[in-house]
Q: What sequence folds into this?
């Protein structure tokens, strides 16, 4: 199990993982991507078969479950740690540290999304 140790202000964790960890994380990414694609395909087919159906955002909740699994797999691949271990490291940070890092993550995510939308509208939408 991971060992916590403190270095001044930030608590660090032992990042040693077994050799098959990244393989299992990539399998999670694959399963999540396939499940999400299948759910989107299902919703697309339902929309094509019943074009007059009412749109209800709660119907998209099942599509989110495989997407969350994909995101957990990506987090594990990028960080090199199991998700629970990363969550424990996050909770061991002080409140102001979580606030600063969380704000940076939100702004970086927004910038990434805006750049993606700008790329799509620049090169694919005429």
A:
């Amino acid at each position: 199990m991971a060992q916590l140790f403190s270095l001044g202000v930030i608590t660090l964790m032992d990042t040693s993982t077994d050799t098959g960890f990244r393989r299992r994380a990539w399998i999670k990414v694959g399963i999540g991507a396939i499940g999400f694609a299948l759910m989107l395909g299902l919703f697309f087919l339902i929309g094509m078969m019943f074009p007059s159906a009412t749109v209800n955002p709660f119907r998209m909740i099942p599509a989110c479950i495989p997407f969350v699994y994909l995101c957990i797999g990506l987090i594990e691949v990028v960080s090199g740690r199991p998700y629970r271990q990363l969550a424990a490291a996050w909770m061991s940070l002080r409140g102001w540290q979580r606030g600063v890092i969380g704000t940076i993550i939100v702004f970086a995510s927004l910038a990434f999304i805006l750049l993606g939308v700008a790329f799509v509208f620049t090169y694919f939408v005429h």
In short: Residues 1-7 have pLDDT under 50 and may be disordered. The first helix runs from residue 21 to 49. Helices lie at 21-49, 61-79, 83-91, 95-123. The chain is about 70% helix and 5% strand.
